[in-house]
């Protein structure tokens, strides 16, 4: 990750964590009760997932710091079961688990020696990465799941440069899928910016919407901005995303 991007990701992690905790404080125990915006998941599922993600990323930073291989998840097969079981705990326990695990991760990030950020570790998908990718990995989780919490947050409340970074990454990922139709994303609030998805030879369907809406749409989030983007993509297969 370029030095500038790494430094900004460090900032996004702390900004996202602070905003997430603020929303939890506003919601009280309700922050771990009721449905989230993710189909089939409650708010407790979202918080438990984020807690286990924090623990997994601490494992990677421990690996980077000590040189001792420490996988993200000791038992990857049980990840979903762990989330299901964890989501059934009392709301106060779920909230404390999230707060404690998030604090441990932020402390591990802040304490990692500068030279250790270039240490090579391995993601849960088996990809070898430098430890410097960890802040960005947490950035995606904490900000996107802030929307899923259903506390009124939308991608249009994200920092503008974070929206740009998310849209660039997700458009590249989605655009590389074999069944991705030819689409040209054209942010209406970014002069000259375009993102091409799908096969190069086909005439693309132009989808024009604010950057935050395009980002939410590609992320599959059910937000007002995503609805606007979807509405401008009438010729794109509606079930594709």
From TrEMBL:
Keyword Kinase appears in the UniProt entry: no
Key words, A-Z: Isomerase, Pyruvate
UniProt xrefs under InterPro entries: DinB/YfiT-like (IPR034660), Maleyloyr_isom (IPR017517), MDMPI_metal-binding (IPR024344), SCP2_sterol-bd_dom_sf (IPR036527)
Pfam families named among the record's database cross-references: MDMPI_N
GO MF, one annotated term: metal ion binding
Species for this entry: Streptomyces himalayensis subsp. aureolus
Entry keyword annotation includes Isomerase: yes
Descriptive protein name: Maleylpyruvate isomerase family mycothiol-dependent enzyme
Domain Mycothiol-dependent maleylpyruvate isomerase metal-binding, chain residue ranges per copy: 18-149
